[in-house]
What we know:
By secondary structure, the chain is an all-alpha fold. The chain has helices at residues 4-22, 28-50, 56-73, 75-90, 92-95, 98-110, 113-125, 129-149, 157-174, 180-206, 218-232. The mean pLDDT is 85.
Amino acid sequence: MVLFGSIVNAVGIIVGTIIGLLLRKIPDQMKQTVMIAIGLSVVVLGIDMALKSDNFFIVIVSLVVGTIVGEWLRIEDYLHRIGNALELKIGKSQSGNIAQGFVTATLIFVVGAMAIVGALDSGLRQDHSVLLTKSMIDGFTSIVLASTLGIGVLFSALPVFLYQGGIALFANVIHQFLSDSLLNLLIAELTATGGVLILAIGINMLGIKQIKVANLLPSILVVTIIVLFQYHY
């Protein structure tokens, strides 16, 4: 089943969020310290991923072009509108800042090497081990995020499922057209580009500077196009 890993990942986020909501009485100081610890970990992970590139110039071009597209489309504003709409339906007073929780969790869970590589493994080889591991990590992270940011974290399960499931289905269809060398090159540059986005998320979590990370997401598509073009021409 191609979508098995993606389904388990989404369920893990939902379960983690529910547990986190039940633990909201955790002292604020402890929550803040834990969030800082997660933020530092995310920064280190982002740097490690970014260094996986074989040609960082491709990553830079992809980020620049992708950011221009993202700013034009105002992706971050769109995600916040979705979160705010959910907030109006549920009520901010009883659920926390849904928009912030939704956007933060979505970006943390979607942007990363494990999401891309795991989904590709599910689609290409029917191997769900990476996504199952990611499910455990995301489940634990969602506990902490939900205890701090509220129920908005739960709604991130849907875009995570759609994103990873879409990659898995796409990979399952086109794997017969891609050579192993092209696939390895594509994964390396996608990982590096995703690493920069992960680093930006960590900076946001640490409160150093607020970056509209969602507006950088088109760079993932741009790097794919560049790698495919470079490989064939």
